[in-house]
Amino acid sequence: MNASYVISSPSQIEPQHILSINDFNRSQIYQLLEQAKTWVNSTDELIAPAPLLANKTVINLLFENSTRTRSSFELAAKRLGAVVLNFNAGISSVRKGETLFDTVDNLAAMGADLFVIRHPEELAPAKVAAHLGQKAWVINAGDGCNEHPTQALLDMFTIWRYKNDFTRLSVAIVGDIKHSRVAHSDLQALTTLGVTDIRLVGPVELLPTTPLGSHVSLHQDLQKGIKDADVIIMLRIQKERMQAAALPLATDYFAQYGLTTDKLKFSKPDAIVMHPGPMNRGVEIESAVADGEQSVILRQVTFGIAVRMGLMVRLLT
Ligand code: NCD
Predict the structure, then answer these.
(1) Ligand 1 atom 7: the closest Cα is on which residue?
(2) Is residue 14 exposed (0-12), middle (13-18) or buried (19+ Cβ within 10 Å)?
(3) What confidence tens digit (pLDDT) does each residue in 50-102 have?
(4) 179 in ligand 1 pocket by Cβ < 6 Å?
(5) What φ, ψ does residue 304 adopt, rounded to 5°?
(6) How remote is the CA of residue 288 from the centroid of ligand 1, in Å?
(7) Strands (E), the chain
(8) Which one is catalytic: 119, 148, 179, 308?
């Protein structure tokens, strides 16, 4: 069973390395959201922070492609005055056979305080964290299909910003739930925050097969799945994480699961539409919806910087 499907009780220990959304209990998530809020103004723009991370060194160690997450961590760290190194695995000694631990040990010896790690292998950031102990902190920026805790936290910030009371919300997550680390972490975060109606929507082969609790329902029909929803989180088909045979045709997929202006009408009139990016327009989402009034997709990106600033301040100060 995929570890991220297990609804476990959050650890009472103050988290150090940030590896899983399960490292946070409800009050710890709210503390972080409150902290991030201090850096966002009333028109949803970022406020310049004090240089709380001057003299700290953050190393982005991303072994997978990334646009938003890498840039977001880099800008968040730089806004706080940290020195940031973007390690390029493609032109490094990793190509000469160096192990991940050796790479990390060398970068730690150069004074790294924090590693932001994305890796195709599940639990790779956790292994690095165990190896480093307290020499430097690790933030998991996505490990295979498993978890993406910082995306979940910025998603929770976005929902909180527009909807406030989590316990009264209906939230639909639509698409490739099975292979999406964002879905896995979002599901846990929504559960921790007390959401009682979470709908996972998609073709049966992309839905989880393990029991998730009475607050989670599975839907193969998009209209039913998003009916009267307050929040719709759209996901990309994770082509790189599945067998070619299991891939639905883009046109068929759009016809059944693509979120269009017409289908969006089944949800609440003030529903918000989210997407972690990268979006595939015309596959899971119509451009008119992605760019429409109910879309908060670019706000998520802005809020991601504030949330990551909060996480780094929590770890490094
Ligand atoms: C996601 C990821 O990499 O898991 N993107 C992101 O970090 N914003 C989602 C995806 O790849 O579809």
Answers:
(1) 69
(2) exposed
(3) 999 999 999 999 999 888 999 999 999 999 999 999 988 776 777 677 899 99
(4) no
(5) -60, -35
(6) 22
(7) 57-62, 83-87, 114-119, 137-143, 170-174, 197-201, 216-219, 231-234, 272-274
(8) 148
Distance 50 CA to ligand 1 centre (A): 29
The 10s digit of each residue's pLDDT in 164-205 is 899 999 999 999 999 999 999 999 999 999 999 999 999 999
CA-based torsion, 26, 28, 29, 33: positive or negative: positive
Pair of tokens at residue 193: 């925050």
Please work out whether the CB of residue 68 comes within 6 Å of at least one atom of ligand 1.
yes
181 CB under 6 A from ligand 1? yes
Of 62, 64, 69, the residue with max ligand 1 atoms within 8 A of its CB, to mutate for a pocket test, comes to 69
Paired strand residues for 60: 86, 116
Tokens of 93: 């000694």
Both tokens of 110, joined, read 């150069």
Question: Which atom in ligand 1 lies closest to the alpha carbon of residue 236?
Answer: 12
pTM: 0.93
Please check whether residue 63 is in contact with residue 118, taking contact to mean a CB–CB distance below 8 angstroms.
Answer: yes
